[in-house]
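Customer escalation, tier 2.

The customer says the design service returned an amino acid string that "doesn't look like it belongs to this structure." They asked us to rerun it and document both sides in this ticket. The original structure tokens are below, unchanged.
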């Protein structure tokens, strides 16, 4: 249903480095790079993540209650994504763990405070 999610960034170069690391762990690579707008894809429909400098030139802000969830291959990848996010300067919003039957997840914020989850169902 969702084609892609876009996240705004204030320090675009640092944010691109953060998401290059996250995308790389997930087997994704840059599909588009326009200097102020980068899209990563792993080649699956609905699997794209975009980063941009806001078009209106206003500061990027965090939406309360908004979150982008990244589908991991397995629980080990959830753990790696969470650790990688923290290594890149992100902050922990919930360590990796079983949240409910069949749902394993970790939560973190990127350099601009956007909330993300890495999850595995199974």
């Amino acid at each position: 249903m969702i084609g892609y999610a876009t996240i705004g960034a204030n320090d675009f170069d640092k944010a691109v480095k953060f998401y290059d690391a996250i995308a790389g762990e997930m087997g994704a690579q840059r599909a588009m790079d326009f200097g102020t707008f980068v899209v990563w894809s792993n080649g699956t429909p609905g699997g794209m993540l975009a980063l941009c400098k806001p078009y209106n030139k206003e500061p990027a802000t965090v939406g309360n209650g908004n979150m982008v969830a990244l589908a991991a291959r397995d629980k080990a990848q959830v753990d790696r994504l969470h650790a990688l996010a923290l290594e890149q300067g992100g902050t922990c919003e919930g360590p990796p763990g079983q949240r409910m039957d069949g749902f394993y997840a970790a939560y973190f914020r990127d350099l601009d405070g956007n909330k993300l989850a890495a999850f595995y169902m199974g």
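Tier 2 assessment: The sequence is consistent with the input. The first helix runs from residue 12 to 25. The first strand starts at residue 4 and ends at 8. Sent an explanation to the customer and offered a walkthrough call.
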